UniProtKB/TrEMBL annotation:
GO terms for molecular function: G protein-coupled receptor activity. The keyword Transmembrane applies. The chain crosses the membrane at residues 23-44, 56-75, 95-116, 136-161, 181-207, 236-257, 277-297. It comes from Adineta steineri. The keyword Secreted does not apply. It is a multi-pass membrane protein. This is G-protein coupled receptors family 1 profile domain-containing protein. Keywords: Cell membrane, Membrane, Receptor, Transmembrane, Transmembrane helix. Residues 36-290 form the G-protein coupled receptors family 1 profile domain. Pfam families: 7tm_1. The lineage of its organism: Eukaryota, Metazoa, Spiralia, Gnathifera, Rotifera.
Length: 336
């Protein structure tokens, strides 16, 4: 009696298949985030750019990035590679969820402040331009951060560690009407108001710049300003578009998982990880956009890596031991 063995193909496991690509994507994008943000801070700290209040907002937007790197990509790499969850304790469960949400809102709020600053700078009303001074930015930035810390503080109490939970990270959210209202407010603030404010003030800035182009003014007085404003408009359009492009997918997934608990499965967690990996591009892509759209930014970057400066530093380092020797030889004569 002949028996036939039918070979059935193994079912496709989306969660397992996505683990390696997600891990490598997070690793590569994390390296890019670190390098590009270091260069970005380096360029923005140049005297030419540091004289603008907008630069302070852009520098402040970089500050939450290290926190984001620890609680999101590094955590994801440890999960996929070692099965280790940073949020796998009573304390870290609360802190990780708090910093994930707070760091992203810090970053977004600074971009909004920078966009509003550009709108005020391009305004023809003198009393509005008074709000674009550096000292105003130095006041607004810490106040903004304190308000965000207060607003995001409920995240410390709405999550708790449950070792018996079916969730992989054992970090569970309390489910009450008050918490649902709070989460709805966060969705409105972060996923609706932030993109809306970027779009509104970006459009108003472009309108102001185009309006000023039709005005008659001395060429030698306004040519430089017009060039700067046109660069600013390009950077602004690209910045708003890139934010919407990179942050919208993860926002949609977050809304679905938050308001539909039945979707909080490993399958949708993997989709959320993919969206998070895509979102990481938004944290470093602005560096390239600034290079291609901002001539001033590009020129300052060239000055940093200018060969004659590098050669001069190497020459000074090479001659430093000789100068130390000369100084040492002079010491006996001083004693005499």
């Amino acid at each position: 009696m002949n028996s036939t063995i039918s070979l059935q193909p193994a079912p496709y496991n989306f969660v397992q298949a996505a683990k390696q690509p997600i891990m490598y994507t997070y690793l590569i994008t994390t390296i890019f985030i670190v390098i590009m943000n270091i260069l970005n801070v380096w360029v923005l700290n140049r005297p030419v750019l540091r004289s603008s209040s907008c630069t302070y907002y852009l520098l402040a937007s970089v500050m939450p990035v290290p926190i984001f790197i620890i609680v999101t990509p590094v955590n994801q790499i440890l999960v996929n590679n070692r099965g280790l969850y940073i949020s796998g304790t009573t304390v870290t469960c609360k802190l990780v969820m708090f910093f994930i949400s707070t760091s992203s809102l810090w970053y977004a709020s600074m971009l909004v402040c920078a966009t509003i600053d550009r709108f005020l700078t391009s305004s023809t009303l003198v009393h509005l331009r008074h709000f674009t001074q550096v000292r105003v930015a130095r006041i607004i930035i810490p106040i903004n951060w304190i308000l965000i810390l207060i607003y995001m503080s409920p995240f410390i109490i709405i999550y708790y560690y449950d070792p018996m939970s079916s969730n992989a990270n054992k970090c569970v959210q309390y489910s009450t009407t008050l918490i649902s209202i709070y989460l709805i407010s966060r969705v409105i603030v972060y996923y609706v108001m932030v993109p809306l404010l970027l779009a509104i003030f970006g459009t108003l800035t472009i309108y102001n710049i185009r309006t000023q182009r039709h005005r008659i003014a001395p060429v030698n007085q306004f040519n430089g300003q017009r060039r700067t404003e046109s660069q600013l408009a390009r950077m602004l359009i690209i910045q708003v578009a890139s934010y919407l492009l990179f942050f919208t997918p993860s926002g949609i997934i977050y809304i679905l998982v938050t308001f539909f608990p039945s979707l909080n499965t490993s399958y949708y967690a993997t989709i959320r990880s993919l969206a998070g990996a895509w979102q990481q591009g938004g944290y470093f892509i602005s560096f390239f956009f600034y290079i291609f759209s901002g001539k001033i930014y590009r020129e300052e970057l060239k000055k940093i890596f200018r060969w004659d400066r590098i050669r001069g530093k190497i020459f000074n380092i090479h001659n430093h031991p000789h100068s130390m020797t000369v100084g040492a030889n002079m010491l006996p004569s001083v004693r005499e």
